[in-house]
Specification:
The complex is a heterodimer of chains A (287) and B (299).
Chain A: H1 2-45, H2 49-52, H3 67-75, H4 78-109, H5 115-124, H6 130-143, H7 150-154, H8 161-172, H9 176-184, H10 189-200, H11 202-218, H12 221-226, H13 235-246, H14 251-271, H15 273-283
Chain B: H1 2-9, H2 13-41, E1 43-44, E2 52-53, H3 57-62, H4 66-98, H5 102-117, H6 120-130, H7 137-146, H8 160-186, H9 189-197, H10 202-213, H11 215-230, H12 234-239, H13 254-264, H14 268-294
Antiparallel strand pairs in B: 1-2
Helix pairs in contact in B: 2-14, 4-8, 4-11, 5-8, 11-14, 13-14
The chains are: A mainly alpha (287), B mainly alpha (299).
Chain lengths: 287, 299
């Protein structure tokens, strides 16, 4: 009897270990599948093209080279594209954080005529993503001769409905006493917004900021429509042009380009994981 | 008292300016263009002559266009594959991660989420190389493991669209996993305990407990990914851009078609009509999304 029980316990333990093992095995394979494409990208970016398309496969080429990187800096305006992308994303992020938080305070704490209607417009704008209005927006931009300008690249991304919504929720949780006390001291709502609200919503600023930055950094369709001059191109456009015109023939160079687009973002992600995950998983929408 | 009343009756410049700016901005960037778009979709728009009102002629003509109809079909296929396969696989992974803890859990979530933060365009370029016939990673793996001829992937009209959908599912797995995993963490421990005492198997726990209790998250994700599937552009443009819309138009989708009509053939009216059709399809989905988003879960 006793012996039986012991055996049963043992087999239980073994099956538990076995299922633990399978669990981790599946997850490790899964995690690996998530980064394999990036490893492939990095390895390929250091290979001569001959080795990438060679039938005899070597994971690490014996004659690895920096030629691909030299080539993209030599033959493409990659530095300029980098600066364009960073500039557009930074300016759009700054304005979106400012406008979304100001709107968040407006909708969370202030009462005025037409507030609900205005909030409805903001939320309703989610129903009209860029794809829907891209033709009229382009025609408007070209009518005021702003094609190929930073203004055109940035203009549609100055506020974000999801940002407003997140900010409103967050500011709603700030106790009214703080605000009332300041108001009795004679502070205007501008003062309250800058001196009380902004310092209290830093985590939310980080979330909305990262979200906006990622969206504008990756934006493709609008940039494709509104930019035709090489010097105004952003990184996704350069990638598009390079990968489109030459196909797989210049595999090495296109992998070098994607490496310098992707790796900085992954490094920043490694440090600020929490904000990335929070922001992106709350909205789930692509820019 | 006097001070307070005076303050109240004074016009509040913050409210006035901020609400005016928000209203003006949306008027210029969304509402105005939407009406302009509707007007355009009802007009004959060539660059030379004045635009003339033609009623529904653009809509009638795009519905006679084979390529447009194909695009519509492809977007439906996109939804029908990406939503169930994406959510199903992510549910499973989220449940597996839920059963780990500590450092391992953090690492898994970190790894699965990494592709989500990267640029869709860059990832599309990478996957194009992975899918490259004969010498890409997938072709090499298939040839090496099974010793059979690997398919041509993006160059094969029968599977090109599925290849793009697979990439899309891969890229956003982490996002769905995080949402679903967070939902699982909120399920009280006692529910799992009583299931264990009742001797529930892995599968019955999964189907009888996890899925019903996570229905809000599942609806949210289904709405989100249907929306994303309707808006697909970059991945198709990058992965099967040459010829545009894939071999034999096999990956042609609505937004790509709209882009071609408007910006390659300068038929703005037809492009606008296509975008209005996307808009109408989005309408219900976005309503569903806002409703589940407003529930405002905490992570």
């Amino acid at each position: 009897m006793l012996k039986n029980k012991k055996i049963k316990l043992n087999s239980n333990r073994i099956s538990r270990y076995a299922s633990r093992f399978t669990l981790h095995l599946i997850l490790i394979i899964g995690s690996f599948a998530m980064i394999v494409p990036f490893l492939w990208m990095i390895i390929s970016s250091f290979k001569p093209n001959i080795d990438i398309i060679s039938v005899n496969f070597q994971l690490f080429s014996s004659n690895w080279t920096l030629e691909n990187y030299q080539k993209i800096f030599r033959e493409m305006p990659i530095l300029r594209a980098y600066l364009n992308s960073l500039f557009v994303a930074t300016v759009a992020t700054f304005f979106t954080v400012l406008s979304s938080s100001a709107a968040g305070y407006l909708f969370a704490k202030l009462r005025f005529w037409g507030r609900d209607a205005l909030f409805f417009i903001v939320l309703g704008s989610i129903m009209i993503p860029a794809e829907i209005v891209i033709i009229p927006l382009y025609l408007m931009i070209s009518k005021v001769s702003l094609v190929n300008s930073y203004t055109a690249l940035i203009a549609p991304f100055l506020i974000n409905a999801f940002g407003v919504f997140l900010m409103r929720q967050f500011i709603y949780g700030i106790p009214n006493e703080n605000i009332e006390a300041a108001r009795i001291d004679g502070a205007s709502d501008w003062r309250i917004y800058f001196n009380i609200i902004i310092p209290l919503i830093k985590p939310c600023i980080a979330v909305v900021g990262i979200l906006t930055f990622i969206w504008t950094y990756d934006n493709f369709l609008w940039a494709l429509v509104v930019v035709s001059e090489t010097k105004m191109m952003t990184l996704p456009l350069i990638l598009g042009r390079y990968a489109m015109t030459e196909g797989g023939v210049i595999a090495g160079a296109s992998m070098a380009t994607t490496s310098i687009v992707v790796i900085p973002v992954l490094i920043v992600y490694a440090f600020f994981q929490r904000f990335f995950i929070k922001g992106l998983s709350m909205t789930g929408i692509k820019a | 008292m006097d001070l307070v009343t005076r303050k109240r009756s004074k016009i509040n410049s913050y409210i006035l300016i901020v609400s005016f700016l928000i209203f003006a901005y949306y008027l210029i960037i969304t509402i105005g263009p939407l009406f302009y778009n509707i007007y355009m979709s009802l007009s004959k728009t060539d660059l030379m002559s004045e635009w003339t009102f033609v009623g529904l002629r653009n809509y009638l003509s795009i519905f006679k266009d084979q390529i447009f109809l194909k695009s519509l079909l492809h977007n439906f296929i996109y939804i029908l594959v990406m939503v169930p396969v994406g959510i199903g696989s992510s549910l499973l992974i989220a449940f597996l991660i839920y059963n780990t803890n500590g450092f391992a859990k953090k690492t898994y979530l970190f790894m699965f989420f990494a592709p989500v933060v990267t640029s869709l365009i860059a990832v599309s370029v990478i996957w194009r190389l992975l899918y490259y016939p004969n010498v890409g990673l997938f072709a090499r793996v298939i040839q090496g493991l099974f010793h059979i001829e690997a398919p041509l992937f993006l160059q094969d009209p029968n599977i090109a669209l599925l290849c793009i959908i697979l990439m899309d599912i891969w890229k956003d797995t982490g996002l769905r996993v995080v949402v679903l995993h967070a939902g699982m963490e909120e399920i009280p421990e006692s529910v799992f305990d009583s299931a264990r005492i009742d001797g529930a198997s892995f599968f019955s726990t999964f189907f009888r407990i996890i899925i019903p209790l996570l229905r809000h998250q599942i609806i949210f994700l289904a709405a989100i990914y249907s929306i994303n599937a309707l808006r697909v552009f970059g991945q198709v443009y990058m992965m099967t851009g040459n010829p545009a819309g894939g071999p034999a138009h096999s990956t042609q989708v609505l937004v790509v078609r709209m882009y071609q009509e408007a910006f390659l053939y300068t038929k703005f009216g037809r492009g606008a009509a296509i975008s209005m059709i996307v808009f109408i399809m989005l309408f219900g989905l976005v309503y569903l999304e806002i409703k589940s988003f407003s529930k405002g879960w905490e992570y």
